[in-house]
Amino acid sequence: MQLNHYLNFQGTTEAAFNFYKSVFGGEFSYLTRYGELPQEDGVTFSEQEKNYILHISLPINDFTVLMASDVNDQFCAPNSIFSQGTNHYISINLEPHEEKEARRLYAELSVNGQIEMPLDNTFWGALYGAFTDQFGIKWMINCQLSEA
Q: Boundaries of each Glyoxalase/fosfomycin resistance/dioxygenase domain copy (predicted)?
């Protein structure tokens, strides 16, 4: 089984995923927009919404794909309103195997974000830091340091 992360944004998926692509590298394995959907009765999109992302996938390693979409009220369950930052208790935890990579990921992903815990050595023997990125996604970097 593979466990992937599916994120929701409100019109900023493309910007977020171009940012994540600049950090993780790789290419989008799938990208479709709302404007590409077949016409359905009662479903209309503004010109801006037609350009929003319906689904995007970015493989970040051999085992993990980061996926997302822009939320659209026409496809949400009743009373389920998108509110950025309501994922207070959910974070994406990255566990790089090398300190240099941990420092790079922390520095690049936290640009214009909010630092919750600076990247530093911990009592459990890891280099750890936490932050919310500029798109409202919470991340943790946890790099287990090898004993000298």
A: 3-141
